[in-house]
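Translate structure to sequence.
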């Protein structure tokens, strides 16, 4: 899972690096050739895109650095941790919910993904199958029983 995520982020870094070093300089050069830069919208747009690409590259490199520092041997194999897919049943309502514990710096979350630092992530962290996680909400305390668990060690690369 971590290697696949690194690969995906690496591909985005390569595309943005190409845009920053090849595409944008040629757009800026073309815009400069048009003349007056004060009222040149193509020039301003290219500069703004250049700033955005630099910021995104910085963000991606920081995330790749964090991913590289993760030691999979430190992630438990029998309880909820980073990369775990957890199925819980609400003890009061009987509803079943599935959560994937993901990194906290993700920019886009899919349905069912929660960060380890979120309230539900903190409640589930370290729980084993059969244990109850207590999720404290402003109006009540939810009791979520862990019914199924698939850790990062059990998942295939396709399960990202």
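Result:
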């Amino acid at each position: 899972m971590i290697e696949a995520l690194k690969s995906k982020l690496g591909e985005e870094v390569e595309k943005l690096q190409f845009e920053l070093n090849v595409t944008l300089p040629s757009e800026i050069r073309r815009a400069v050739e048009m003349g007056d830069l004060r009222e040149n919208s193509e020039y301003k747009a290219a500069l703004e895109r250049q700033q955005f690409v630099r910021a995104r590259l910085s963000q991606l490199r920081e995330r790749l650095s964090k991913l590289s520092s993760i030691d999979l041997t430190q992630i438990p194999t029998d309880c909820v941790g980073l990369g775990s897919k957890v199925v819980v049943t609400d003890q009061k309502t009987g509803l079943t919910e599935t959560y994937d514990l993901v990194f906290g710096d993700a920019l886009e979350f899919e349905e069912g993904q929660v960060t380890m630092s979120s309230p539900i992530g903190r409640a589930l962290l370290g729980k084993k199958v059969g244990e109850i996680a207590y999720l404290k909400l402003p109006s009540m305390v939810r009791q979520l029983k862990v019914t199924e668990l698939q850790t990062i060690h059990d998942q295939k690369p396709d399960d990202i």
